[in-house]
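Task: complex structure prediction.
Instruction: return structure tokens for all chains below.
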Amino acid sequence: MKKFLALLLMTVMLSGIFAGCKAKEEKTATLRVAALSSGYEATKAGMWKEVCDAFTKETGIKVELTLEKNLEDVISASMQGGDFPDVVLLATGREAGLTEQFIRDKNLTDLSDVLSMTIPGESKKVKDKLAGGFTDSVATNPYGDGKTYLMPMFYSPCGLFYNKGLFEQKGWEVPKTWDEMWALGDKAKKEGIYLFTYPTTGYFDAFFYALMYSVGGADFFDKATHYEKDIWDSDKGKLCLDIVAKLATYTNPKTPAQANDQDFTKNQLLVMQNEALFMPNGTWIVGEMQDAKAAEGFKWGMTALPSVKAGGSQYSYTWIEQIWVPKGAENIKDAKKFVSYMYSDKACEIFASRNAIQPVLNVSDKLNEENKLFYSIYDNGAKAAMGNFAAYKSVAGLGSINEVFFDPINSLVSGKLTKEKWIEDIKKANVIMRENLIKE
Amino acid sequence: MNAVKRKNLFVLLCVAPATALFFIFMLYPTFSVFRMSFFERGAYSNKESYVAFENFKVLLFDERFIRAAQNTIFLIVAVTVFTMSLALLFAFFLTRDRVFGGNFFRVVFYIPNILSVVVISGVFSAIYDAENGLLNSFLSVFGKKITVLWKGEDTVIYSLIIALVWQAVGYYMVMYMASMSAVPKSMYESASLDGASRFSEFFNITLPLIWTNLRTTLTFFIISTINMAFLFVKAMTSGGPNGASEVVLSFMYNQKDDGLYGYSMAAGVLIFIFSFLLSFAVNRVTKRRVLQF
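Output:
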């Protein structure tokens, strides 16, 4: 009897060991994908699940998907312990700045060869499907060495959003230059409407990038985003900051008090309820505010940034969400395969069904009516602005780009900070940022 | 093995798990915080370089940190003073006088404490709204329309204080009510025979007799305010506008996001030392002879 019991226990133990083995084997064969659950997912859930399933069906590689709204909070703890997902979809420019940290630490896998990979299940290569210009900027090649570390996943034009219905009602023209803008601001003020508002100061990044382009073109943008010496003392630099500071005086005074993560939709409402004319935003605003109560006759409109001179170029910033592979990922080969699959017809179709638009050729056929209007901004004369501030090594006490450039705008609006002090702080930071610029 | 040795071994084995856990989850992380404050490293890479006291040197002159520290100290002082006095006052009236609906008030005051901070921030977002907010609408009843920006740069810190006090009063009120009801009625009766007023009843009988309780809760409260302030700031204001409502813990948290792990830990060390000294000071200052009844 005793022998029998011992034998039984032994079997249980051994099977336990083998069970452990099996689980481990499975783990190495599974691709771990972490994606941000953003507004697209909110429209109709299941987008990422469908894409992952389609990938598994095509390649036989199992995918373990982590899909969270607060992705940074969910994955950062295990990453600090050295356990990285294989593929991450998370854009730069988020408040937690997780992607920026990976760029700064040079913790990304070089994805340049993905461009010449054949898309699983298709005969085309990735670079044959990608629209031109999307893998040329700092947004995808952070070190300016021609190597692509982040692949462009979704893009969306950003610009100034306004109530089209109100403009038609009042017979106002959408301003094409900043001079017309100020004139409109004075006119609207008489009717009790402020010219400008912003959801939070974070929305100024896309605005400011487009502004830099419209003031000085790609050349000035490049210099300014690489913190060139005395750039903010140059005429173009001064003009950029002057426009922002002047805009602050035209901003609805309620804005700063509501410019936080809790109340930012109230600022967006200001535009919908005719308390402010323009705000910087992206195409997701339509879905985000679909249940909000708007003024009568309200219709969304979007325009590129006004030009500096009459007849000058108007710019609209192209916001790109990136997908990338951490250097510490276990399964880099399959991860690259997964990234290349993102540009397959099947995946594009699934993404487009949630209005998540990828920079692939002929994507415009897949757009719905409203989005066609927004995405056609570049066909109607506006130029695309792309890129962002170059990565610099974090310096204690310096503050982030947002803290140095854009957060103080809250104080400019409320009058607690002078323009001179703001510019002086930017100049000081510019020096330190240049000294700590990350170069390959 | 004799009996004594065996007993010792048994005790040792009993205590070992708890001690091990304490070392792993309390002492080691605390030690790590101190160690990391002397290094500079990103959050997701293990490259680190020793910088000695550099983090602390920069921290003490960092305008953002100084502002956050000022805000924190102001919050601790104001919130503690208001919460404690209101809680004591309410508790005194609810236990001493048979207030009509006393139990009802007890429940109502306690409710904020069981709400999560996210819910509270939602409630206060509606209260503080500039246009249709509860507070501005209420103030406008008495005359012309008032549109105070409660979350604006000048007022945001006071708005935080109100929310923090509102949230904590009920809990401490219930604590004090419990200890006040333990004070024998006979003392109040004899005092009133001697012609003592409500005022002197409170200061000469109630307060001294619940002092031990008050002292403990005070230390708890001050430490918890440092933590609660962080939660409220995160949920209500994101530290804005332009850092006007930043507190030390949210400052520390943001530094981590900027990839300055060591710097963030240096702030953590200062907060640790500050809280430690503060509780020590409070404990010392409030020390009295324990009264029996």
